[in-house]
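Many introductory courses stop at the sequence. We go one step further.
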Amino acid sequence: MERPPRHGDWSLYVITDAAVIGNRPLLHVVEAALRGGAGVLQYREKKKPTRRMVEEAAALAALCRRHRAVFIVNDRIDVALAVEADGVHLGQDDMPVAVARRLLGPRRLIGVTVHNLKEIEEAQRGGADYISLAPVFATPTKPDHQTPMGVDGLKRLMEAVRCPAVAIGGINAQNIADVIRTGVDGVCVVSAVLGQDDPEEAARSLRRLIDEARRSRLSNRP
């Protein structure tokens, strides 16, 4: 079932990772990804002090506004509120959606990572604005992830999805078309864009593959 995306273009959702970016300037690398077509950026940082996180998040939020992209903060509701981010993304061990909604109010987005049918239903019932289906494939950026579901598993889970959904986990230029053809609204990537020598061209190339796969999917509908 085709579901129109809400709150922006979910096609290419890029997540920051300090280890992947390395010594390159964060803002420089992220802006290149946005120029290449990333429609959503998630700031994911687990180790830096809160003050530094607020500084980086504020700069990224301003960058996303200039490029008309959605800006999401991973986990840290306090940081999201401090920089007026568009929303937060929560894992299964993070704050419950209902509590996050009370703190964030009705206008900000709440995304939730899900791995199975039970978690999909709980997230949708709780009022999540979008979900992230994880992991499709194995990924070195999150070595403690659950068992990959593969394209067939993703397709089965999509049958229960009623809100915007993105797929995450080991997605790259070689498998992105198969992922898009399952019906997801977009893909989340880290290394496939931010880990490349030219993040702008990497993002632009993935967008082309996404658009081609989406057109193919629509043309093959009965």
